[in-house]
Amino acid sequence: MAEELALLVADVFEAAGALRRAGEALAGAEGQTQARWQLMSVVSEESLPVARAARRLGVARQGVQRIANELVRDGLAEFRDNPDHRTSSLLALTPSGRRALEAITARAEAAHRVMGEGIAQADLATLRALLRRLTEQTDQWAEAEAEAGTATGAEAGEAKRGTRSRAATDRLPE
């Protein structure tokens, strides 16, 4: 079981790399990066404080703040007053940001149709369910390790916050 899981982890990392490269290409075709695309997507449904957007993305707030500032600078997003918290503005897409996100999403949908050819929808649904279960069990393990004090200080903090290390954040594409 442990050996099969180790092989699955390697396969997931390989797939993640391939999907990350594809995502960069898709976003790049519209003059964006995958990190900018991810952040625009997270705030597309509702305006969010940067810290909450970072938690949803599973990365450090500082990296997301930098990307948010770039989106605002480029007119793709704006900071709005937050009625629930005076010092924590909400990040919202502008009409230009929505158009950019729609263009990337259309490219992604076309790419996904090609990438998914020959894979049954039921197989994809099963795979998604298994990955969600594995993610949940991994998070539970990490939390238990952090509570038991067996994880390193950085790992324990990450498990409790649900965030990744600075090194993981630095891998977010510019």
What does this structure look like?
The protein is mainly alpha-helical. Helix content is 69%, strand content 6%. The protein has eight helices and three strands. Strands 1-3-2 form a three-stranded antiparallel β-sheet. Helix 1 (2-28) packs across helix 2 (34-42), helix 2 packs across helix 4 and helix 6 (121-148) crosses helix 7. The radius of gyration is 18 Å and the shape is globular. Mean pLDDT is 88; it is low at 163-174.
What's the mean pLDDT score?
88
Structural class: mainly alpha
Please tally the helical runs, counting DSSP H or I stretches of 4 or more residues: 8
Encode the helix/strand succession as letters: HHEHHEEHHHH
Low-confidence stretches: 163-174
Largest sheet: 3 strands, antiparallel
- The portion of residues forming beta strands comes to 5-15%
β-strand number:
3
* Outline type: globular
Oligomer: single chain
Task: Tell me roughly what share of residues is in helical segments.
Answer: 55-70%
**Termini separation (Å)?**
38 Å
Q: What spatial order of strands do you see in the largest sheet?
A: 1-3-2
Radius of gyration: 18 Å
Helices and strands in order:
Blueprint: H1 2-28, H2 34-42, E1 48-49, H3 50-57, H4 61-73, E2 77-80, E3 90-93, H5 95-115, H6 121-148, H7 153-161, H8 166-170
Antiparallel strand pairs: 1-3, 2-3
Helix pairs in contact: 1-2, 2-4, 3-4, 6-7
